[in-house]
Amino acid sequence: MAWPDGEGFPKRRELLFGTRLVPCYSERPKTLDAMFRAAVERAPGNEAMVDGARRYSYRDLDAQVTKAAAALAARGAVQGDRLALVLSNRAEFLIALLAATRIGVVAVPVSAREQKPGITGILNDCEARFLVHDAELTDRMPDADAVPSLALRLSVGAAAGAAGRFEDLLDGPDAALPAVAWGEEDTAVILYTSGTTGKPKGALLAHVNIIHSAMHFEECWRFRDGERAVLAVPASHVTGLVAVVLAMVRVAGCVILMPAFDVNGFLALASRERMTNTVLVPAMYNLALLRGDFTRHDLSSWRIGGFGGAPMPEATVEAMAERLPALHLLNAYGSTECATIIAVVPVGHTRACLDAVGMCVPCGDLRVVDEDGRECPPGATGEVWIRGPMTIRGYWNREDATRDSFVDGYWRSGDIGSVDAQGYVRLFDRKGDVINRGGYKIYSVELENALARHPEVVEVAAVAHPDPVMGEKIHVFVIAKSAALTAEDVKAFCRAAVAEYKVPDHVTLLEDALPRNANGKVTKRVLRDRVLSGELGGGPAR
């Protein structure tokens, strides 16, 4: 299917990674540094970043990036080295990231929520030579001898005069930059997958992958020069890094940093900074509706509200439209392996896509295949495979995982979905999350979508509950607006909304939030473990 909004940027078929003949944007920067330098040259006075009271124009940011790059090179950083970034949403994250790309160093962002064993494991896996971290996270950093490859550690936010301050790199004298010759297929960033199903793997994001994703956002969501985006999701995750930070760099836009999300703080910041777009998870929109006072803030500049990681209940769409009529709520289906973006809802198509994640991006090739790898007809259900210039070539030092996950350049997503004749992509479940109740296959997403329409339900997740007779039964975890909702209310609502065999057998009403990874996706593995252990974390299962 052709993208509905016209031809967009010029494209041509190119051979990538020596094996993949795919449509590509023919007029594109070749590296992330080239993309950033183009923004600096085109709009040096545009505001590039806001971090509290600190404001940077593109000219200012370029100067800081050059200083950091030269200082890292002077301290031994050479092309191909790995620089780990364990930083919250702060200016130094973007400065360090862009400095790495300027001298050919590979950036390895790590979630600031990760604990010491996880950080140590990632740094050892990627053989990091350099580490930049928040000073307040020092206790979670690896012990001195735990990562033999580390040559230099730098902290951000330490007291003046302390050793190893990243800020001191930015205050030093100007120095020459080393000559770097690298291509667009070289790795720019290693992002470790969120690990919802097991040990994280290091996804090798090449320059060509990230640049195509940034251009996909520009084309599909009609981003313009000087856009302003609030970053309220982690910069260390592919959504924050590509869909917000680097998508803004592509259009010489401004990234407004928010270290931690709180509803009224977000609304106030968005109003004060005249935010035009952002990407959140649906739970954040739900919280905004539950706790936010929209009447106190002028949000008329907000045009694009992207979301992903979970479906958006129709009631949420309606409520947001009532409060912000000019806002386009647009779903996006993405993954680390595709540099975030696979399918998106076009501007103006929200109503047509309430149960879909959008249409495949212009340079993408999305197929739905059966268990034998044969392409399914329109509307049929199967596994979603994706290929394109945004799809990575594999995982760091994991030939086995690369071989299992990629076929002829297609990434095997593990998502069960369909594509209709109009090109709309729908997702039903992860392959491992399908519930087999006495031979009936039940897609948890279908049940979750149905329950999300209950006026008292804030969030819901469905998982399998082992059963000696049926094999598996259905267990739902529900976050309710109030204590008035009962398990029987949930079951009664389902009896009127879904087939009898899809009605949940067990209901747990939670007072706290559903467990999530850094991208806001519910970690169903944790919920399944709770079911097996009997430690459900809420009221008794009924």
Textual characterization of the structure:
27% of the residues lie in helices and 26% in strands. It is α/β, with parallel strands linked by helices and 542 residues long. Strands 13, 14, 15, 16, 17, 18, 19, 20, 21 and 22 form a ten-stranded mixed β-sheet that branches. A four-stranded mixed β-sheet has the order 4-3-12-11, with helices on both faces. It has a four-stranded parallel β-sheet with strand order 6-5-7-8, with helices on both faces. The longest helix is centred in the N-terminal third of the chain and has 17 residues, at 58-74. It is globular, with a radius of gyration of 23 Å. The two termini are 46 Å apart.
CATH class of the largest domain: Alpha Beta
Give a short account of the largest sheet: 10 strands, mixed
Mean pLDDT metric: 92
Low-confidence stretches: none
- Bin the helical content: 25-40%
Pfam families: AMP-binding, AMP-binding_C
Organism: Azospirillum doebereinerae
InterPro entries: AMP-bd_C, AMP-bd_C_sf, AMP-binding_CS, AMP-dep_synth/lig_dom, ANL_N_sf, ATP-dep_AMP-bd_enzyme
Keywords: Ligase
Short description:
The protein has 542 residues and is of the alpha/beta class. It has 2 domains: 11-419, ANL, N-terminal domain (Rossmann fold), CATH 3.40.50; 434-533, 2-Layer Sandwich (GMP Synthetase, Chain A, domain 3), CATH 3.30.300.30. The chain has 14 helices and 27 strands.
Fold blueprint:
Layout lengths: L10 E6 L3 E6 L6 H11 L4 E5 L2 E4 H17 L7 E5 L4 H12 L3 E4 L6 H11 L3 E5 L17 E5 L9 H6 L15 E6 L9 E5 H14 L7 E4 L6 H13 L3 E4 L5 H10 L4 E4 L1 H10 L12 E4 L6 H10 L4 E6 L9 E2 L13 E3 L4 E5 L12 E6 L11 H7 E2 L2 E10 L4 E7 L4 E3 L2 E3 L1 H9 L4 E11 L3 E10 L6 H9 L10 E5 L13 H10 L9
Parallel strand pairs: 3-12, 5-6, 5-7, 7-8, 11-12, 13-14, 14-15, 26-27
Antiparallel strand pairs: 1-2, 3-4, 9-10, 15-16, 16-17, 17-22, 18-19, 19-21, 20-21, 21-22, 23-24, 25-26
